[in-house]
Amino acid sequence: MAILLIVFSGFALSLLAPWLTQPLGKAAGWVFALVPVGIVAGLATYTGAIAAGETVSVSYDWISITAFDVTLSFYLDGLSLFFGLLVSGVGALIYVYGGGYLEKHHHLGRFFSYLSMFMAAMMGMVLADNLLTFYIFFELTSFASFMLIGFNHDNAGSRRSAWQALLVTKAGGLAMLIGFLLIHQVTGTMQISEIIQMGGLITGSEFYLAILLLVLGGAFTKSAQFPFYFWLPNAMKAPTPVSAYLHSATMVKAGIYVLARLHPALSGTPEWIAIVTGFGAVTMLMSAWLALQYTDMKGILAYTTVMALGLLTMMLGVGSEIAIKACMLFVLVHALYKASLFMIAGAVDHGIHERDVTKLGGLRHAMPITAGAAVLAGLSMAGLPPFFGFIGKEIVYEAALNGGVAETLLAVTSLLANIALVAGAGLLVARPFFGKPTAIAKKAHAAPVSLYIGPVVLAGLGLALGLFPGPFGELFLLPAVAAVTGEPVEFSLYLWHGFTIELAMSVVTVAAGVGLYLGWDAMRRTVAARGFERWLGTGLDRGYDHTINGILAFGKWQTRLLQNGYLRNYMTTILSVGVVLIAVSYIRGGLFAWPAEAMGPIELHEWVLSALILGSALGTILFTSRLSAIAALGIAGFSIALMYLSFGAPDLAKTQFLVETLTVILFVLVLVRLPNLKEPASRTGKARDAIIALSVGALMTLLMLAALRLPFDSNMATYYAQNTYTLGEGRNIVNTILVDFRALDTFGEIAVLLVAGFGIYALLVLGRKDDDDAPADDDPSRPDISTPVSTTETA
Amino acid sequence: MEILLAFVVGGLFAASVYLILRRNLVRLIIGIVLLSNAVNLLIFTMGRMTRGEPGFIPVGQELPPEVIANPLSQALILTAIVIGFGLLAFTLVLVYRTNKDSILVDSDDLRDEEIDPSVYHK
């Protein structure tokens, strides 16, 4: 029950927030933050049990179908607790920050609503135990982030970014769904807690590679890995509180969470190590250096986030215990400094509407508290002791050196990426806050408490955890790592490891990073750097545009082709496809045979009538004069009536005579007002139509011949015939069927005629704008057209 | 006999499909009339055919003679003929009305008119 509350309180807040924001005024953010604080408190009560190696699971029946059950089941272990606390903890600060940042925004209530939906979806996702439940929450995070990224919906750039993020992550999500279904196919269960116990089953199955690629499709798009990363920098169009939340602690970590969650079941194979490590390393190195091509603080933050995601992916790919430890640790390290720096960038932007680091400097005088938090966060990002980031970086180096996977390559890659990260930290902190004061920076003023409390708490936590990492390691990191590796682990966290090779790498990192920071202005302008930016920074984004435009152009082309609005083209398509499909089954079913018994003797007048029907049908096609065509149509109708008459159907014949007479009269009346039967079709067009027409005719004949061979079931007819007098008290069997046995059908028929009559009346009499000067009485066809309808009802 | 009518029905179908594929709306309507005749005749044939012997119960008896024409298919066709006529009347008036408002009896022009009405309106 407590877990349900943890997941669904956010959804409840999402519904209530729009109504509560206005009355609460400035306090709204602070009040709403109580919900995530409550979630943190609720989760914290499980800490002891989880650290002792226990797990908690609850399950409620939800959707039960024959193939599998979708249960509303949740599973709490070290990994989900760790991520759950991260999501709700950072979330609480974001509520406060967002309330301050968007204080005067007229859609603040909407913002809180989306934010709550997003947080609740994240909570549901990290706690979900059922793969489909997991998928639903996973997709809900995509949807909520679409709303959040496009929050400034009157800005075309925001809309495009939101749309792009949605399309990219949804495409991956769909791939992942197929992967999940394949996992179910292999394991026979949807429960994640059971699947992660059966590692060898999946890695040994024939579907393994497909499952791996499909799940990675979901994880890589969500976590912005190469080559899908381009949506993340574009998503910086979102208001900064959104970026701080989505891109530091939550949404982009969802992909990492997928990989970590399924790590016990999918990892360890050569394919996993090669693909996950490889893509992670490429993403990390590329984005760390791309970050240095930007001057916008949020641009730098976006690419260093991609770098962090690459690092996490790489570590999950390596998959050894130390690598998983590095991964989990870095998740928190990154969330702490990145959320702070995002909020700091937002505070600067909020104060002076400028985020370009080349135009900022000396902000420490006007914004001392923000500057203090920035220093703490920046030092953690750069990985200097005694900050948490230092521990993180040391363990990453250790993992790269001892991971058992391409050690030298990974170590050098990590080193290069971290050098760029140090320079990035300098750009984000040293330059705006300590550089030479610029004109625009002089307008700065101190940020309100709501805008600095978040950075202060998170950056302070980065220092505190650096100094005293022990309790965190035991209570949270150990269980999380154990959940990812699938077996119990034992280690302790220390700030100081002694003089090791990792320490030497750290010294090199910091020294080179500072050098890079100092030479940044010159480096940024080199041709190589610009080319790098043009290809990898915006190149894929352009590729995305080409893809989308291509899909749209294809859609337009095929719509014009198929939905061209020309009636005869539709008819041609429908009839040709129908003929081909039916003919194929006809031939494959071997349906043809000559129904010799249905031949019987044919009398002369029957030959004559058949010839008349066919001949006059041909006449309707060949005659160019309107009257001749109508006359031919009449002859066909009357011949059919005579055919009815000679085969014991006088009622049919009578009706057909009446209707056919009226038809001819009606045609003649209307046709005198229409142009002649000129036909603009070309010779080839006519030939093509003739082929289609003959195929349809031939097929109908063949179908009838096939059906005639089947035994005839006359039960229904016999029933009516024998009960007409006893039940219906009539002597004409056909009439009794119509008005008694199947009276409802006849009632429907009369209703159809009535509606047709109304329609005709409306067409002829109503809605005629030009009738004012032309009285309807001079229209000779009108009374004649509407009266026959009522007469035929008696037929 | 049914075999002969299978060919007649096939011919009627071919003729009506050819007419429905024409651009001239009057031909199209003639095609629809032929099509409903073809379908009716198809039902009639598939109900199997009996010469003479309409389905009447003679006065003074409760049961019809041993051999009668199938009354069920006749009842179905009777309904279909009347509804087919309703459809025809409506379609004819629709074409008539279209022609009165603009200068169209060509289904291609109808489509083009939707895109640019000014060209075809009287």
Instruction: State the CATH topology of chain B.
Output: Helix Hairpins
Q: Strand pairing plus helix content of chain B: what structural class?
A: mainly alpha
Distance between the termini of chain B: 53 Å
- Can you list the strand order of the major beta sheet of chain A? 1-2
Shape of chain A: elongated
Total of DSSP H or I helical runs spanning 4+ residues of chain B? 5
- Give the number of helices of chain A: 36
Radius of gyration of chain A: 38 Å
List low-confidence stretches of chain A. Answer: 771-795
Beta fraction of the residues of chain A?
Answer: under 5%
Helix content of chain A: over 70%
Shape of chain B: elongated
Mean pLDDT of chain B: 85
Number of strands of chain A: 2
What composes the largest sheet of chain B?
A: none
- Topology pattern of chain B, helix = H, strand = E: HHHHH
- Any idea of the CATH class of chain B? Mainly Alpha
Number of strands of chain B: 0
Major beta sheet of chain A, specifics? 2 strands, antiparallel
In a nutshell, what does this entry contain?
The complex is a heterodimer of chains A (795) and B (122). Chain A has helices at residues 2-24, 28-32, 34-44, 47-51, 78-101, 108-127, 131-149, 156-187, 192-195, 199-203, 208-222, 231-234, 240-246, 251-261, 263-266, 270-290, 297-318, 321-352, 368-382, 388-402, 407-434, 449-467, 470-485, 501-518, 520-524, 527-537, 539-562, 567-588, 604-622, 626-646, 650-671, 683-708, 715-723, 733-741, 743-765, 781-792, and strands at 56-64, 69-76.
Secondary-structure topology with pairs:
The complex is a heterodimer of chains A (795) and B (122).
Chain A: H1 2-24, H2 28-32, H3 34-44, H4 47-51, E1 56-64, E2 69-76, H5 78-101, H6 108-127, H7 131-149, H8 156-187, H9 192-195, H10 199-203, H11 208-222, H12 231-234, H13 240-246, H14 251-261, H15 263-266, H16 270-290, H17 297-318, H18 321-352, H19 368-382, H20 388-402, H21 407-434, H22 449-467, H23 470-485, H24 501-518, H25 520-524, H26 527-537, H27 539-562, H28 567-588, H29 604-622, H30 626-646, H31 650-671, H32 683-708, H33 715-723, H34 733-741, H35 743-765, H36 781-792
Antiparallel strand pairs in A: 1-2
Helix pairs in contact in A: 1-3, 1-6, 3-5, 5-6, 5-13, 5-18, 5-22, 5-23, 6-7, 7-8, 8-11, 11-14, 13-18, 14-17, 16-17, 16-21, 17-18, 17-21, 18-19, 18-20, 18-22, 18-23, 19-21, 19-22, 20-21, 20-22, 20-24, 21-24, 28-32, 29-30, 30-31, 31-36, 34-35, 35-36
Chain B: H1 2-20, H2 25-46, H3 71-101, H4 107-115, H5 117-120
